[in-house]
């Protein structure tokens, strides 16, 4: 994952551990104080939230502990697309140009220009070079993109 992605996972993990988990513990205690737990919807909801929080914490802890941080600024630049690079692409059919950065799954946000290396676009462009034309299957059909530039920033 990128250094920014690593910091994002760490921040979310801290939020879940230090803020959301304690808030839910308080909610559980308040729901218990209402009495009969068998018909207590607040208690059931708080237990469900606790389950989701603990599951998310486990996922974040695994991502954090197993993360391999790759700082693209420390890699010698070339015209090849690798993890962490920013890629200028052009749709061969429409001429539309767009820019994406290849990142880890936890960091992906297409609207922000961050695509996962496991996404159709990510898989198609990884290992390719400037000038290459890549074809891949997208949810709306097959697309062909031309790699116009690769930035190591």
Concise description?
This protein is of the alpha+beta class. It folds into 2 domains: 64 residues, Helix Hairpins (Orthogonal Bundle), CATH 1.10.287.180; 77 residues, Chitinase A, domain 3, CATH 3.10.50. The chain is built from 3 helices and 5 strands, in the order H-H-E-E-E-H-E-E.
Q: Would you tell me which CATH topology of the largest domain applies?
A: Chitinase A, domain 3
Helix-strand pattern: HHEEEHEE
Largest sheet: 5 strands, mixed
Low-confidence stretches: none
What percent of the residues sit in helical stretches (DSSP H or I)?
40-55%
CATH architecture verdict of the largest domain: Roll
Q: Strand fraction band?
A: 15-25%
Instruction: Count up the helices.
Output: 3
For the record, the count of structural domains works out to 2
Overall mean confidence score, pLDDT: 92
Oligomeric state of the chains present here: single chain
* Rg (CA only): 21 Å
The counted number of beta strands is 5
* Content-based structural category: alpha+beta
What does this protein structure show overall?
This protein has a five-stranded mixed β-sheet. With 153 residues, the chain is of the alpha+beta class. Helix 1 (3-33) runs antiparallel to helix 2. It starts with a helix and ends with a strand. Strand 4 and strand 5 (141-151) form a beta hairpin. It has two domains: 3-66, Orthogonal Bundle (Helix Hairpins); 75-151, Roll (Chitinase A, domain 3). The protein has helices spanning 3-33, 41-66, 120-125, and strands at residues 86-91, 97-103, 114-116, 133-138, 141-151. The longest helix has 31 residues, at 3-33. Helix content is 41%, strand content 22%.
């Amino acid at each position: 994952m990128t250094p920014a992605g690593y910091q994002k996972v760490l921040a979310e993990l801290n939020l879940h551990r230090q803020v959301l988990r304690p808030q839910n513990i308080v909610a559980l205690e308040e729901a218990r104080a209402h009495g009969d737990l068998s018909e207590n919807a607040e208690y059931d909801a708080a237990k469900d939230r606790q389950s989701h929080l603990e599951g998310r914490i486990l996922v974040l802890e695994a991502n954090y502990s197993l993360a391999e941080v790759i700082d693209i600024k420390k890699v010698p630049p070339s015209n090849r697309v690798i993890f962490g690079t920013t890629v200028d692409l052009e749709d061969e059919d429409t001429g539309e140009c767009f820019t994406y950065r290849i990142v880890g799954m936890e960091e992906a946000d297409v609207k922000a220009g961050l695509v996962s290396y496991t996404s159709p676009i990510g898989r198609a462009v990884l290992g390719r070079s400037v000038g290459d034309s890549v074809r891949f299957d997208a949810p709306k059909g097959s697309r062909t993109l031309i790699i116009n530039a690769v930035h190591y920033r």
